Each structure stands twice: as C-alpha cells, then as structure tokens.
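Field log, afternoon session.

UNIT: design team B
ACTIVITY: writing a sequence onto a fixed backbone
BACKBONE:
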C-alpha cells in the first residue's frame, strides 16, 4: 500500500512538471503568434534592435482588468468560471485502466483553452497591458494544471486501490 502511494506521488510530481511545460508551450506559441502577426519573424532584425531602445505606447500602458467597465469585468469572470469548471469537471475516463495522465491532461487543457482565449481577446480589445494579460493567463494555466493533475492522479490512485482491494477479496 505504501509503495502504491509513493509511486503515485512520484508520478504526480513528474506530471506536474509536464503540465508546467505544456502550459509554457502554449504561452510560447501565443507569444510567437503575436510576434508573427506583427511581422517580427526574425528575433534579431534591425527593427528589434531599434525597438529595444525606443519606448512604445505599450511600455506606458498601465491599464488592468480593474480599469474595465463592470460589464466587461463580469464577462471576464464568467469566462474564468467556465474555464475553471471545464478544467475541474469530473471525467469518467480518469478512472479507466491504462490512462496516460500526461496525455489526458494535455487534452483537457486544449479543450478548455477556448475560455482563456476569449479572456485574452477581450482584454486585448480593451487595451489592457499585454504583459499583464499574458502574466494573468500563465498564472491561471499553471494553477489549473496543478489542480487538474491532482484530480487525475487521485482518480488513478483510487482506481488502483480499488483494483488492489478487489484482487485481495477474491483470494
């Protein structure tokens, strides 16, 4: 029983690291897409050197979600609640034999990403500081990934314990 718990904890920790990497990958892809949409495909271009010296309007943008109208804040909170509900929704497949927790976590994160994308779009459209927006979304992804992995690992350990008990009862 102790071996099963230790194995579950070790697997859980390795999966948390994998989820953090997956969340960082999503963020990197978003940043790359943003750079590409602005025409910055070469990170060492002449324009990039000049832009690091010159200040942009975004450098002085201090607008936060708290500066948005109450209606927009409520819309953001609804999207955030939908994201959290999507990420934490109990799924029967967590209890299936042969489940690959990393793969399942990736699938769930992809499925739920639409809610964070709507928040990012709303914040971008309303002039919220880009770095602030990316920071909020990264933090939310990381927190949710940890909770998701905890749920998946708890379900996996519960299933293994159930199978162990059923095996012990048949003897």
């Amino acid at each position: 029983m102790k071996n099963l718990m230790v194995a579950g904890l070790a697997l859980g920790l390795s999966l948390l690291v994998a989820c953090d990497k997956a969340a960082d990958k999503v963020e990197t892809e978003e940043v790359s897409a943003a750079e590409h949409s602005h025409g910055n495909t070469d990170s060492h271009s002449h324009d990039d050197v000049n832009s690091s010296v010159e200040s942009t309007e975004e450098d002085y943008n201090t607008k936060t979600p708290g500066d948005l109208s109450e209606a927009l804040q409520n819309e953001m909170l609804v999207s955030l609640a939908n994201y959290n509900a999507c990420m934490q929704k109990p799924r029967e497949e967590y209890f299936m034999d042969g489940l690959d927790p990393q793969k399942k976590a990736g699938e769930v994160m992809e499925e739920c990403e639409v809610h964070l994308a709507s928040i990012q779009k709303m914040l971008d459209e309303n002039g919220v500081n880009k770095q602030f927006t990316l920071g909020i979304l990264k933090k939310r992804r990381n927190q949710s990934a940890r909770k998701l992995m905890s749920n998946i690992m708890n379900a996996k350990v519960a299933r293994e314990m159930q199978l162990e008990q059923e095996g012990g009862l048949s003897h």
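LOG NOTE: The helical segments are 2-37, 46-53, 70-88, 101-125, 130-169.
NEXT ACTIVITY: expression trials, pending approval
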